[in-house]
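Both lines are quoted verbatim for reference:

——
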Amino acid sequence: MPYAYDPELLPWIPRIPRLSIVDIEQTRRDEMGMFAGMPKYVPPAPFETRDLTVPGPSNAPDVLIRVYAPANRAGVLPGLVYIHPGGFVLGGIDLSTDDAAAIAVEVGAVVVSVEYRLAPEHPFPAGLEDCYAALTWTAANAADLGIDPDRLAVGGESAGGGLSAAVALLARDRGGPPLCFQLLGVPELDDRLDTPSMRAFTDTPIWHRPNAELSWDYYLGKGVRGTDGVSPYAAPARAEDLSGLPPAYVTACEFDPLRDEGLAYAQRLIQAGVPTELHHYPGTFHGSTVITDARVTQRMTTARTTALRHALHPTP
């Protein structure tokens, strides 16, 4: 069906590969080259990275993390545990360098990017528990990382946004590290796939209903999505109580099957008394921020940077 995409995005759409996760192994082999022709992030200032292996969940492998920080920083900085996108089945810290580096440099933060285990080989709760283990390790080692433990946040995009919401729920319910903020970019939150946007957008670029169905089947196990008893830590839209969660920043794209679950989750956060900022961007689609030169993308990234600065560098 035709969509009223932003005019600056239109010329790029034919150059975007039609992403399908039917053959997940082939898609993983191809993913590094899928968006090779898109504009790349050029940091306005230098940054440093280092890779570390931290203890994983009980009876599970250790977790690889990559720490990003502005070069020549002075004093402690806020911290953000960053969880990459990929529908629970794709992606990794190598593919998420631009986002993590941009946050580190432009916000002024230490970013801990997590290489969590992927489905279907490692279904729920493996990836989530890896992310939570990275959060608890980061909080316990804040001094060595140069992080102010009172300014620790979690965030990500797409599946990373959904996992960030789940990590925030776990931290609240387990009495884990206190979080000052959650960044939920176009989050994947609801396995029931019953919103108007999820029903309508079956052929949109990058993400569409067929991919969403497979994503949840891989993550939960075939035949589980949409049934009773799915954990709210797997699908945070199912959480009955959203009170006591950290302030949130939520984004949604107009032509994204995930649009309505993000909007609904933000509304429920507000109703639960959680300070929440919500942005809906007309004319955009899931992942359209890869088109970095478009003005709508620049507005999206500027707004995200501003929100993170306000949350992580609060004025007295």
Q: What stands out?
A: The CA atoms of residues 76 and 146 lie 5 Å apart. The chain has a mean pLDDT of 96. The longest strand covers residues 147-157. DSSP finds nine helices and eight strands in the chain.
